[in-house]
Amino acid sequence: xxxxLFFGSFNPVHVGHLVIAQAVxxxxxxxxxxxxxxxxNPFKQKxxxxxxxxxxxxxxxATEDNRDIEAxxxxxxxxxxxxxxxxxxxxxxxxxSHDFSLVMGEDNLAHLHKWKNYxxxxxxxxxxxxxxxxxxxxxxxxxxxxxxTRFEMPYLDISATRxxxxxxxxxxxxxxxxxxxxxxxxxxxxxxx
Length: 193
Description:
The chain has helices at about 15-25, 50-65, 85-95, 105-110, 120-125, 140-145, 160-170, 180-190; strands at about 1-10, 30-35, 70, 100-105, 125-130, 150. Helices cover about 40% and strands about 15% of the residues.
């Protein structure tokens, strides 16, 4: 099976993430998308993150009605911070019958050269990348990585940071987060401080 790994803190997951996951399924030959909840991204500070199991539960609730998109906790058993190359190697060893690919935004592609063993990732794993809203297209960057497959998606200007800030201010985020995930966030009073 061809599986796209969409890594993220998902702090919290929102409809923009799900639009990306569905778009890559619609626009490529990938058969499934696993939304990999990262306990600790080496480029982000942990202090602002919900516990990884809470973030995983939110992703599970957000994806429960789509059999082609699912939450993954694979990085929970790996050392932190989480390095994509280590996760890819772990999955390839444990599940050799699957073909794994990466799903990422253009902003991540711009910083790919900073990733641990990024050359090995480029050599052994396909990458599917979407352009980011409001960013001038960096043609040189796309030319630098000709092996990366670009896919198009509807643009939504939604971010987890904006959602967290809205919750802290007592604003309603009900249509920015899928229903089950929204109800869970509200019940647990996450991000409300």
